[in-house]
Design brief:
The protein is mostly helical. It has a single domain (2-111), classed as Rossmann fold (3-Layer(aba) Sandwich). The chain has helices at residues 2-14, 24-33, 43-47, 52-60, 75-82, 96-111, and strands at 39-42, 66-70, 88-91. A three-stranded parallel beta sheet has the order 1-2-3, with helices on both faces. Helix 2 runs parallel beside helix 4. The termini are far apart. The model has no long low-confidence stretch (mean pLDDT 87).
């Protein structure tokens, strides 16, 4: 998870606790059993269920800020995902600064 490694120093500096899961089932279990302030999810995980994964996660934690990351900028995909009420759609090629800002804003929203 290249983006995750690039975020590690920033996350550590902010003292954010990070939980990494590899499956939708694990993400769902984590949301049901732990307090999660923000979720960063690869589009492939969301796509595995036809983007219904986002709706299901929102059903478990309605106000959870969900940030979707993707390798390629695909306007049709972005439109479909944004309709699910995500917090932010991040195209990795745009750089880490935008993702860091989105996570920071999501954390601020969750704590406020």
């Amino acid at each position: 998870m290249q983006a995750g490694k690039a975020l590690d120093p920033w996350l550590a500096d902010k003292k954010y606790e990070v939980k990494v899961v590899d499956t939708f089932k694990d993400a769902l279990m984590t949301l049901q059993n732990e307090k999660v302030d923000a979720l960063v999810m690869d589009v492939c995980l969301a796509e595995s269920m036809g983007y219904e994964a986002i709706s299901i996660l929102k059903g478990v934690s309605r106000n959870l800020p969900i940030i979707i990351t993707t390798e390629q900028n695909n306007p049709e995909q972005e439109s479909s995902i944004r309709q699910k009420g995500i917090f932010y759609y991040h195209v990795r090629s745009f750089g880490m600064d935008e993702l860091i800002l989105a996570i920071s804003n999501a954390m601020t929203r969750s704590s406020g």
